Fold each of these.
Amino acid sequence: MRFLIAAAVAALALIACGAAAATGAPAPPPGTPNVNVGGGGGSPAWPSGCRDLDISTNQTSFLFGTQIYRFHALEHWCWAGGIVYDERHGWSFDGSASACLGTVYPPNSWFYTYWNGIGTSGHYTEERAHVTNCVFHIGDWKEFYPDVKVWAHADGSYSTATAN
């Protein structure tokens, strides 16, 4: 009887911990998308899942070595069947006392063909702004144009480019 109870507890522990823990496989790193492989019935197996990104560019003061600002591009997308859907994007700004956010330009954003000839299998987003290094929010002495580009793909991968 004790053996059955111990076996039941062990089985519940394996179910609760998941198959990765049961096989000793390492856990995926933080930020790894939840990817499931679908398909069947003769159709190709397409990965599916959702992902959130926070890609940023920053500027530091050459004089003091402190951070003037950090401009973030936020991207969320889901994919299934070789297409990107539920795409959302935005931006955020972390500025010091000497950073003045002047203009945030409208995002450049569109779908494109990334995978298997499917026109919505990739999504491009570019977030841009105009920031100045200002003194007491009155006078400007340096201008910056942070630019963050994200290419989100229908397999959960992505590419980025940043500039100031």
Amino acid sequence: MKKLWITSIAAVVALIGVPPSARAQALPVPGYEAAKDLPGAKELPDPNMTYKVVFDIGKAAPKIDDVNPGLATVARYLNTLAKNGVPADHQKIAVVFHQGGTEIVQNNEAFKARNDGHDNPNIALIQSLKKAGVDFRVCGQAVLGSKIDPKTIQPEIELDLWALTTIVNLELRGYVHVGN
């Protein structure tokens, strides 16, 4: 009984040091930090707002074995929203791949065939982000220009006519455009 009581007190003491927003909601994308807390910061995510954001990924990672930095930014942003208490149903996040960012939409087999046997380092993060509710799109014109077989596109990603059309349509639906 005494051991249970001490364990309970230790758990309560441990939670006191954790901000309420972090206790309220687990981070949706494992392995990626949220933005660090900054005492006195004026603008913070607002749990009462709905965040409609389209991230534009038009560049490749600096190295073939690196996760695309744009995807890492999306993960950090989602985790920051969650850490600050923004409910999942208030997070409407889309990612549009085009230009130099197109190649990462391929399944591992196709990616390896085009990249000297290198695995696609983005697949696990794309799957985690999709599980967290992110909507993925790829530019059909970039797919054609890169000679990517649409059958090799990862199942989490939808093929659209053109990135420009997708981004404009989402903006007209109230999404904020972040990226290139």
